[in-house]
Amino acid sequence: MNMLISPEAAAWFKRELSLQNGAYVRLFPRYSSGGGLHPGFSLGIATEPPGRPAVQFEQGSLIFYMEEQDLWYMEGYSLSIVYSEAEDDIEYKYESVPVAGGVKE
């Protein structure tokens, strides 16, 4: 699983969550009525230090990560978080990742 956060999205997190340099942002699946990759779940955020990080990405002096137990949500996908100026909000973009050793056409 790859994770990419645009500099503009990192600046949004910093501003909206009043984060200092070096702060951690945890991304995790949570129950929701909306939809993300899986019905009934969406991607949540928390500002807490990692316990058992499996993936992390630093951008804008913030450290974004996902814990080992949360990786099931992203299985087969990479994640990009970008800033939408029109909405003054962030967007999660999921991209399917080809399975290694898969069938070739």
From TrEMBL:
On the tree of life, the source organism's domain of life is Bacteria
The protein's name is HesB/YadR/YfhF family protein
What InterPro entries does the record point to? HesB-like_dom_sf
